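Thread: Newbie trying to understand structure tokens

Hi all, I'm a second-year student working on a class project, and my supervisor (Dr. K.) asked me to get a predicted structure for one chain before our next meeting. I've only ever worked with sequences, so writing a 3D structure as a token string is new to me. If someone could post the tokens and maybe explain what I'm looking at, I'd be very grateful. Here's the chain:
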Amino acid sequence: MSRFLWNRRSTLAGIAGAVVGATLPWRPTAGAATSVNFLVVGDWGRDGANHQREVAAKMAKVAAARASSCVVSVGDNFYEQGVISSTDPQWRSSYESVYDAPSLQVPWYVALGNHDYRGSPQAQIDYSALSSRWRMPARYFTVEGTTLNAPYLDLFFIDTSPLVHKYRDEVEDAIAANVRSQDIHAQLGWFDKELGKSTAR
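---
Reply by user tm_fold:
Sure, no problem. This is what the structure looks like when written as tokens:
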């Protein structure tokens, strides 16, 4: 079984999202990396405010020092109301102009959070076609470790908001309508199938 080494990074009073660095060491097959380094961040899209820029600067330093191969975003990418389109101004104010350091110009594999459902989840998928970094091909997807030169690792991005009962039935109509637009049984079937076919250790 893989050994995970998690190093919690400062989030400047816990605002603008938790940042975690992950290193997954392994005995590689020929040509594979001995480890893969990446950053994990969540709850971050705040138009650069609430210490978002300071956290981004710390992320950049860690990414440079550890040669991070990607960033994983676990959701709530844009506060408070998500984005409404792939040209929403928040793409610039909360993402492009904040995470602009050279060490952060790596793939960002992105999951949706409940705040993203207040806007258009599809807009975040659509932005993948406009950005060299933003990687969200669907609401749920797999990143095979071979993409990261780490065949011992697969990453599964699931879309949890539709799986939460209160988001389907007990919140304002805008979120509920977006959440209900996903077939949760299809997602769970996909996840089971992906886990079953994965050969990653």
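A couple of things are worth pointing out once you decode it. Residues 5-159 form a domain with the Purple Acid Phosphatase; chain A, domain 2 fold (CATH 3.60.21.10). The CA atoms of residues 75 and 112 lie 4 Å apart. Feel free to ask follow-ups in this thread.
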